Amino acid sequence: MVSSEFIIGVLATGVTLATPVLFAAMAELFSERSGVLNLGTEGMMLMGSFFAFWASYSTKNSWAGVFAAAAIGALMGGIYAIICISLKFNQTISGVALWFVGWGLSSFFYRTIFGVREFPPIIEGFRDVPIPILSSIPYIGPILFNHNPLVYMAILLIPVAWLILTKTKWGLDMKAVGENPRAADTLGINVFLVRYRSVIIAGILAGIGGSFFSLAWSKTFLDNATAGRGWIGVAMVCFGRWNPILTAVGAFMFGFADSLQAGIQSLQLGIPYQMALIIPYLLTIIILTVTSRKAVPPRALGVPYERS
Amino acid sequence: MEIGSLLKKCIVPATSILLSFAIGAIAIFLGGFNPIETYRALILGTLGSVGGISEVLVKTIPLTLTGLAAAIAFRCRIWNIGAEGQLISGAIFGTWAALSLPEIPIVSLLVVLLMGFIGGSIWSAVPAALKTKFGINEIVVTVMLNFTAILTLNYVVRGPLLDPHAIVGYSYPQSAKIPEFEQLPILLLGTRLHAGLIVAILCVAVIYLIMMKTPLGYKFRTIGMNPQAARYGGIDVTKNMLIVFLLSGGLAGVAGVMEIIGVNLRLLDGISSNYGYLGVVVALLGGLHPVGVFLAALFLGFLIFGIQSAQRSVGLPVAFVIAFEGIVIICLLLGEYIQQHFERLRGSESYGQ
User: Fold this and answer.
1) Do A87 and B334 touch (CB under 8 A)?
2) Which positions in chain A touch B33 (Cβ < 8 Å)?
3) Which of A53, A88, B89, B309 could form a disulfide with A214 if both were Cys (CB 3.0 to 4.6 A apart)?
4) A 234-273 near B (Cβ less than 8 A)
5) Distances in Å between the alpha carbon of B126 and those of A96, B67, B132, B143, B256?
6) Is A52 exposed, middle or buried (0-12, 13-18, 19+ CB in 10 A)?
7) What is the pLDDT of residue B351?
8) Set of chain A residues whose Cβ sits within 8 Å of the Cβ of B151
9) CATH classification at residue B109
């Protein structure tokens, strides 16, 4: 009854749906590896989603949208860095505050700029760009190599993040600062610089992740479009034990579950669609429950560094 | 002395509010509105009439309860961001009870309120169990459960609790009307101000007594200050955290059921208007103190209804509420930061003498 086309479809959509979670999780990973808990990811994504929409609507160019999302993400990351690294505010509370700011302002600016309309303004957005040769491989081609550019960016981000975090001085400095900032400081690493850098990179990644919703998914701006994907990114970092590859695995698992629930809805088995939509959220809770007992976060996570 | 220290406690929240209005003015200006005109509309729309003031109080009721829910949890260092879901769950359970109970004067109403409390507690029992049993951080879990609750509500008002008289495809998806004997009485004729205000104030008093005057509250506060020390001191941290979680969820649940039996009189989508999330800012603005929570809820109620009136008069989008809330929290943290620095400065001066 379930055809192979259905399975390929579910897997391909799963890769697409994993994209925003992957960006969110990588953003969170960069921030947390340096010792800064960033619960504002969801808010940064929503701002990214709106600015991407606005920029690409005005310029008719989707890449301008990606750039705008990255810029607003960097700005929010910078603000969060000042708040948490320099002023040393409580990271849980200020992260939640940043979420509210991003959530509220994205909807506020959308309403003030575009007003209330009967039909929402639509952008062209990204289209699927099949990669020559690779996309014609049976099964794997349609699943991995027939997507919009943001999906390819997300997939490329996995090895890039792994390289940066484990092989470069930037990444090793981040790890040192996240595990033991005082020792890192003694070794001459500028703790504040490293943390600022990581949180701003996190902002950029979250912003681009948010742009997915307007540029590649709905082709318009929707209030609260992320629907918790930023938070799920936070959960996936915990699932991935602060390792980029495992974190990516988590993001893909989420994407496939999300796509599967959409597939189940399309089969019309009489299951209420709301119950299907709940699956990804419950799955996140279950994943956290099963895996987080063994998870050991960076030792200085959430603790502001005081140079005495 | 008492009044002096009370005033001193109000300095930081009051200045943060003023600062938030200043930052908010920038956002309003960027959005293409005149900030002065907007704020004028905000104040006139709320405090300019009895109707306005009563609407502020109507919003104060759920905000007080979600604020208390967040405050007692935060006091215990439990980051319950799930009041939104707990409120919705309370509303669902309460509505279900209200529509199935027979008519017994007063008793039915009390049972409905209790069911709201239980509904909220059930929703907070999940993060409570996961945190105390497996050590799983409650923040992500409570946020996930908020989305789950919204979807469950969406299903329930189209399925099990759909008004049997509704005409599919024509009527709005909502439950049947709450029978009159289970509705909260109106306090002021011609307004929507209902007896939930009394329930909210009672809850403030009860939580104040529990937190400040009983051994239980002492345990909660000790856990919040230092869980390790509390454990060494012989306090059962797990058990007390569970109690706080259930109490916190229950209070949010009562907020939810009272929105149904006091204001909407039917269960429908979007009953919460983000009261659960707004409870976070109410708790922080109120200094995690029950009385402070009530004052902060009054302010937030004023703000929300004010922005709603400003939407009607000058067209300011209501989405501004949630952004303003975030700005208030950041300003509050900033205010506390500056105050601490002042105290440290003053401290070093007195050392010099």
Assistant:
1) yes
2) 112
3) A53
4) 234-235, 238, 272
5) 21, 20, 10, 12, 18
6) buried
7) 45
8) 274-275, 277-278, 281
9) 1.10.3470
- For the stretch B91-139, pLDDT in tens is 999 999 999 999 888 899 999 999 999 999 999 999 999 999 888 889 9
A8 part of contact set with chain B, CB < 8 Å: no
Question: pLDDT band for position A307 (50/70/90)?
Answer: confident
Contacts of residue B130 in chain A, CB cutoff 8 Å?
Answer: 285, 288-289
As a whole number of Å, the CA-based R_g of chain B is: 21
In 3D space, the residue among B152, B127, B80, B277 whose CA is nearest the CA of residue A278 turns out to be B152
Task: Report the pLDDT value the prediction gives residue B353, as an integer from 0 to 100.
Answer: 36
- Distance between B102 CA and the closest CA of chain A, angstroms: 30
| CB < 8 Å from B in window 113-132 of A | 113
| Count of structural domains, chain B | 1
Residue B16: inside a domain, yes or no? no
Whole-angstrom distance, CA of residue B35 vs CA of residue B104: 52
Q: Please give the Cα distance from B163 to B169 (Å, whole number).
A: 13
Residue A177's nearest CA partner among A164, A194, A159 is: A194
Q: A97 falls in which pLDDT band (50, 70, 90)?
A: very high
pLDDT in tens, B266-275: 999 988 889 9
Which domain covers residue B303, as residue numbers? 58-331
Strand partners, B194: B186
User: 3-state class of B44 per DSSP?
Assistant: helix
Longest distance between any two alpha carbons in chain A, whole Å: 68
Q: What residues of A are in contact with residue B126 (Cβ under 8 Å)?
A: 285
- Measuring CA to CA, which residue among B128, B102, B94, B344 is closest to residue B199? B94
**Domains of chain A, first to last:** 18-116+142-291 (1.10.3470)
Mean pLDDT of A88-94: 90
Q: What is the phi/psi pair of residue B194, to 5°?
A: -115, 175
Decide if A98 and B326 are in contact by the 8 Å CB cutoff. Answer: yes
Q: Which residue carries 């994407």 as its tokens?
A: A255
- Report which of A63, A96, A7 is spatially closest to residue A215, judged by C-alpha positions: A63
Place of tokens 């789950």: B148
**Per-window interface: B 154-173 vs A, CB < 8 A:** 154-155, 158-159
Per-residue pLDDT tens for B300-342? 999 889 888 888 888 888 888 888 888 988 898 888 888 887 7
- Separation of first and last alpha carbons in chain B: 25
Task: Give the mutation candidate from A41, A88, A96 for the B interface (greatest B CB count, under 10 A).
Answer: A96
Cα-based distances in Å from B132 to A253, B125, B135, B245, B267 = 27, 10, 6, 10, 33
- Residue numbers in A near B330 (CB within 8 A): 83, 89, 94, 97-98, 101
When pLDDT is cut at 50, 70 and 90, the band that residue A216 belongs to is very high
Contact A257, A279 (CB under 8 A): yes
Higher pLDDT, A272 or B200: B200
Task: Decide if pLDDT at B15 tops 50.
Answer: yes
The residue type found at B205 is A
Mean local confidence (pLDDT), B257-281: 92
Is residue B341, in this structure, part of any structural domain at all? no
Q: How many CB atoms lie within 10 A of CB A53?
A: 33
Cβ–Cβ < 8 Å for A94, A43: no
